[in-house]
Amino acid sequence: MKSKDIRKEFLHFFETKGHLIVDSAPIVLKDDPTLMFNNSGMAQFKEFFLGNGTPKNNRIADTQKCLRVSGKHNDLDDVGKDTYHHTMFEMLGNWSFGDYFKKEAIAWAWELLTDKYGISKDQIYVTVFEGDKGDGTSLDEEALELWKQHIAEDRILYGNKKDNFWEMGDIGPCGPCSEIHVDIRPEDERAKVDGKSLVNMDHPQVIEIWNLVFMQYQRKADGSLESLPAKHIDTGMGFERLAMVLQGKSSNYDTDVFQPTIQKLEEISGIKYGTAEKTDIAIRVIVDHLRAVAFAIADGQLPSNTGAGYVIRRILRRAISYGYRFLGLNEPFIYQLYPILKAEMGDFFPELVKQETIVTGVIREEEASFLRTIEQGLSRLNQIIEQLGDSKIIPGDIVFELYDTFGFPADLSRIVAEDHGFTIDEAGFETEMAKQKERSKKATALVTDDWVILDDKGNETSIAYDNTEADVKVTRYRKVKNKKGEFYQLVFNQTPFYAESGGQVGDKGSIVSANETIEVVDTKKENNLIIHFVETLPENIEGVFQAKVDISKRNATTKNHTATHLMHEALREVLGNHVEQKGSYVGDDYLRFDFSHFSKMTEEEIQLVEQKVNEKIAEALPLIEKREASMDEALAEGAMALFGEKYGDKVRIIRFGSSVELCGGTHVKNTADIRLFKILSESSTAAGIRRIEAITADTAINALKVAEKNYNDVLVALKTKNDALKAVQSLLDENAALKKQVEKFVAQQASAEKATWKAAVKEINGINFLAIKTNLDTAAAKQNAIDLTNEIENALIVVGTNDTVKPSITISIAKNLVADKGLHAGNMVKEIAKHISGSGGGQPFLATAGGKDVNGLDAALVQAEEFAK
Ligand code: ATP
Ligand code: MG
Predict the structure, then answer these.
(1) Rounded to the nearest whole angstrom, what is the distance from the C-alpha of residue 164 to the centroid of ligand 1?
(2) Is the pLDDT at 31 greater than 80, yes or no?
(3) Contact indicator for 543, 517 with CB cutoff of 8 Å
């Protein structure tokens, strides 16, 4: 069965069981501060399990793009080394939200695997939860009894809390689970060793393919379990592992999911898969990482130096360095695999087709730049090895520094070290790594208490589009602690505060009661709850508060948001329809917009975009808003749906004239409110991605006022009425002429001085010695010293500049003296520069030191004479 058909069959099967089939959520999560990437099928449904939202249907199935490279699930180190863990994989899943429970989940899983997919029953093992004393839970008899109806009892294993109890996080919904394992060893091996003994033992051919989670508890902050009123089903099956089983292969990489890219890589590298362990691992790493990086970029997560972008960059670099080390690939190659991936998966994941130019452009550029880093790192490492000389050990902090600041992989340092007969200080390196981990853990550590629920009937709605003030009641609150300290999160029955999302910052403001005013410092969304951050808890938490949004900040932000839409449209008009939003920040201070475009914008293009936006502002276009539109309606109106965004059932359409966008942000009533739009800068953030920063309204007007004032100040300083440019030009001309004259004058003076210097040279022990003070500047003095050394034989020239602020000493020595007498100008200058509180150094025949204390100059010159003796 082809993998495409395996996926189709799964979705079809659950459709016939009354499930709604939905799209995969984006691989990069936007509105969940607790998770960077989607790492399981359930992540996009968290809000439903938490009771913060209602699903479209209480039975849902899909395939979810998952990435397990950070946080609780991190499989990165195994990827490539084993044959069944990937960074990015598809998780097939079916869900019940308070609908069916264990009976159906088990029966359907069994039916699909054995009947529809035809997996032999005597290759399957299942596990049930044995219970846990500490938690006060006992054997999951319900699941056991249900399984017994399908599978022989001796194929059912009992699992402990580690394998068979699933938790969403430290707190939240959780429950026992049943895993389904398949034994795909050849028959003779199966006859020899009982598969049962290999379950959950990391055997590559006795592997878990499916996990059925029965969510029936809620874990509280004190560690105790509470029964959930509505019980849920959450299942996840590894698509690539299933393909391996159904295609009769013994490795995920032998299936049609990976074979096409492997073949292309064999072609590029000239190395066959299956010939040696080391090159096999490299090939697996590369074709695996390609998918992770490609899907992440297609969903809008570009490689960068921070956060999720940094994780993506590191994955790509890992692939590049495996190619470099083991396959001898030192030119960009990963981007060449992309067309194959697109051809294989683009049908089901159209974002791969749509985003091809960006994805390949970005990967190629990242590859080229990292390969340069590798080359630079290599030469730096070679230098270090040379300096270290006999010690034969490269200190751990150096290896760490190469890794941390230059991105040069430790593995590479290790190999280069070995090539030179060196080792690296592994323990020291590990210590540095551990320190860094500790630092980043500290930076993100968040301790969250349980919610204190005051009113669980409140529907906690946003009224931010129409209001900036409202009477509110707190429906729940909790205490949270992070590195910044302790604060509280409040949820209101209704709120005029806009929660950060879609690039727009969260509202600030206050809540006021008869006896107190509490500042709201930020508003964010978490699993569909709108959370207000405050530093102190109101005394009368159950009272009514008047919530007041900081209107001036909100208004400024709103203007920037509308201006972002107008600019997006103008960019598409000026540059072309390939322009797509790739990221944005909309604050009260300015707006930032990242978009796909392959070259630097010209000055004319920037001005044209600015002009077009200002024209739309002048046209005074009214806001036309549709809050409850269907996606079809929105697309028909010309709105652009972005990949990497999660859209609900109903979308909101924001129209100003011909600009139409799907948007959840706040907007002006009329474009005239924006008054003025001004672009501050245009730059590049990654290959094929440009960034514009701009300002509007009062900020823009003030910026123009400041610019005007500066210009007027310049006119006054130039003593001209209007033509500043002409005045500046004539100053520049005059300046250039004066500079020439000064240079000539200095040269004349220097050469005159050189004649006096020459006369003052005295012979000491066969050395023509001179120590002299001069009023020349350091550069001229140095040049004179060099020239004089060339003009006379056996010269040792010491010149001190008589500069009260920055005195200097230069020593120049004839090369033959250096060789014959072992003189060293660098060491000498270090020695005598102490008299002028200075430091410096240089080569054996020429060195300069700068100082701070001119009073010591004479003493320094007197001491210099010792060198000749
Ligand atoms: P394992 O113990 O094999 O790492 P897991 O317990 O982490 O698996 P779950 O979190 O239960 O797995 O995920 C559900 C299913 O997703 C697994 O049964 C497996 O088929 C698949 N899966 C999990 N991690 C990966 C991965 N890194 N690559 C490919 N498939 C995976
Ligand atoms: Mg795992």
Answers:
(1) 13
(2) no
(3) no
